[in-house]
TrEMBL record:
GO molecular function: magnesium ion binding; phosphoglucomutase activity
Designated name of the protein: phosphoglucomutase (alpha-D-glucose-1,6-bisphosphate-dependent)
Domain of life: Bacteria
Disordered: region residues: 1-23
Protein source organism: Salipiger mucosus DSM 16094
């Protein structure tokens, strides 16, 4: 087979700016002439070249995954990469990729995914670059990549047939080694080293029933192998287990809206003991007990409070971190444990430094992400196994466990209201207007609530001293309630306004309220302050989580 390296003249393509989590666009955008190639070449430029480097490569199996993987391999080979470790079938979950980068000492990795966004020919596609620590590239790297997209004049690509990625093994591609690995093996081994698999096995043996909805995304093979294969969960525990290019026309986002069939089952008469789901690329999770949904913020707090039940964390936690809009439930646990609790901007990349230097062990976000220092990404299945390990030790139902948790620490009622595909100009105007009013809000009352303070969140990284500004508008009310507004950094059309609502309750008799009702005063206050309904033209949020 002749293998010629072609140098292809190209021009910068506008809008290739990596967002919260890589570059994410409609699939047809990525399929445009030169689009993917320009971005991949810009990654090589942004990281100072790929020559002699080892990369990890895989994706969540969505439409265009396989073709894109072939392009990345040909472009890595053309620019002199030493080796690419690729998941069989070009599949790798995001946490599994993070693990491989770390354990194989790779220089970085490329994950082909638009995470929880729908896939398919009209869906979304994405490319994320992770650095040698296994985590999402920090701003310092993504800004170099973006700069490169604006000045690119040519890219290099090997002319070759598609290489076979269906079987494990190694081969060379124009001098570059390609190692095809099973996407599950290393990850499953790592999980066995973290959790008490014997205890979880005993739990399942005792008749404990579980449902895991893989949403036709990448965690299917991982969950089937670990839950059913290794831990003895009943066959059929994992549903929608086969990854499909369009996720079976679904929206692979594990929340009560998009994982509604699972929610219905868990709230129904014949509910299993425990339910869980993960997203497109396997880094998000949803936890739900029989008749009891657990918010991601509460989940993080529960994991922190019970971490010593898990072998890998039996010595206790070094500290915890949460993104700013995440509820402060974990802060209350950190207080009780007398460990540090860090507040970072939205985006997993902000946890990287804290994890790298050992300041924190656990971290999490309201956006269904939880993780620890075992990798540098959030990890959906890990969170599910963490819960199983706790339940195996406690032998309580999820509802009992939550009730006990709230009794001990208080309950941070929490909800997020999303207004999707809002006209970008209107959304920006809303934010600009509120930003302008922040300094004068304190002291004003809205219904029953009085504003105590308001500001725009900025973060000074305590490890590298970098500063991230403009990370969300915060309004605190007297008594501890809080509202946060920010625009999503992961959408692909229009703007998504996120309104995060939180109300602290410490009265033991008021732990069982409907969150929307408990939050009603904050909801109406923030609408009055920011003019949400008026400015978006919407009567109600599109998604409530
Ligand atoms: C991705 C990142 C998360 C982040 C989320 C926020 O999933 O990996 O770390 O929390 O995006 O998305 P948003 O749409 O709110 O910017
Ligand atoms: Zn994801």
């Amino acid at each position: 087979m002749t293998q010629t390296i072609r140098t292809v003249p190209t021009e910068p393509i506008e809008g290739q700016k990596p967002g919260t989590s890589g570059l994410r666009k409609k699939t047809p955008v990525f399929q445009q002439h030169h689009y993917l190639e320009n971005f991949i070449q810009s990654i090589w430029t942004g990281i100072g070249g790929v020559e002699g480097k080892t990369l990890v490569l895989g994706g969540d199996g969505r439409h265009f995954n396989s073709q894109a993987a072939q392009v990345v391999l040909r472009m890595a080979a053309a620019s002199g990469a030493k080796k690419v470790i690729v998941g069989k079938g070009a599949l790798l979950s995001t946490p599994a990729a993070s693990n491989l980068i770390r354990t194989r000492g790779a220089d970085g990795g490329i994950v082909l995914s638009a995470s929880h966004n729908p896939g398919g020919p009209e869906g979304d596609f994405g490319v994320k670059f992770n650095t040698a620590n296994g985590g999402p590239a920090p701003e310092s790297v993504t800004s170099k990549i973006f700069e490169a997209t604006k000045t690119i004049t040519e890219y290099h690509i090997l002319e070759s047939h598609d290489v076979g990625l269906r079987t494990e093994g190694s081969f060379t591609l124009a001098g570059m080694e390609v190692e095809v690995v099973d996407p599950v093996t290393d990850y499953a081994e790592m999980m066995a080293g973290i959790f008490d698999f014997d205890a979880i096995r005993a739990l399942f043996k005792s008749g404990f029933r579980m449902r895991f909805d893989a949403m036709h995304a990448v965690t299917g093979p991982y969950a089937s192998a670990i839950l059913e294969g290794t831990l003895g969960a009943a066959p059929g525990t994992v549903i929608n287990a086969i990854p499909l290019p369009d996720f079976g026309q679904g929206h692979p986002d594990p929340n009560p809206i998009w994982a509604k069939p699972l929610m219905d089952e868990m709230m129904g008469p014949n509910a299993p003991d425990f339910g869980a789901a993960s997203d497109g690329d396997g880094d998000r999770n949803m936890i739900v007990g029989k008749g009891c949904y657990v918010t991601p913020s509460d989940s993080l707090a529960v994991l922190a409070a019970n971490a010593t039940l898990v072998p890998a964390y039996s010595d206790g936690l070094k500290g915890v971190a949460r993104s700013m809009p995440t509820s402060r439930a974990v802060d209350r646990v950190a207080d009780a444990l007398d460990i540090d609790c860090y507040e970072t901007p939205t985006g997993w990349k902000f946890f990287g430094n804290l994890l790298d230097v050992g300041r924190v062990t656990l971290c999490g976000e309201e956006s269904a992400g939880t993780g620890s220092d075992h990798v540098r990404e959030k990890d959906g299945l890990w969170a599910v196994l963490f819960w199983l390990n706790i339940l195996a030790e406690k032998r309580q139902s999820v509802a009992e466990l939550m009730a006990a948790h709230w009794r001990e620490y208080g309950r941070n009622y929490y909800s997020r209201h999303d207004y999707e595909d809002v006209d970008s100009a209107a959304a920006n105007e809303l934010m600009d207007n509120l930003r302008g009013e922040l300094p004068v809000l304190a002291g004003h009352s809205y219904g029953a609530l009085k504003v105590r303070d308001a500001d725009e969140f900025a973060y000074d990284d305590p490890v590298d001293g970098s500063r991230a500004e403009g990370q969300g508008l915060r309004i605190w009310f007297e008594g501890g309630d809080r509202a946060v507004l920010r625009l999503s950094g992961t959408g692909t059309s229009g703007a998504t306004l996120r309104v995060y609502l939180e109300a602290l309750e410490t009265d033991p008799d008021k732990m069982d309220r409907d969150p929307q009702e408990a939050l009603a005063p904050v909801i109406s206050a923030v609408d009055e302050i920011a003019g949400i309904r008026k400015r978006t033209g919407r009567d109600a949020p599109d998604v409530i989580t």
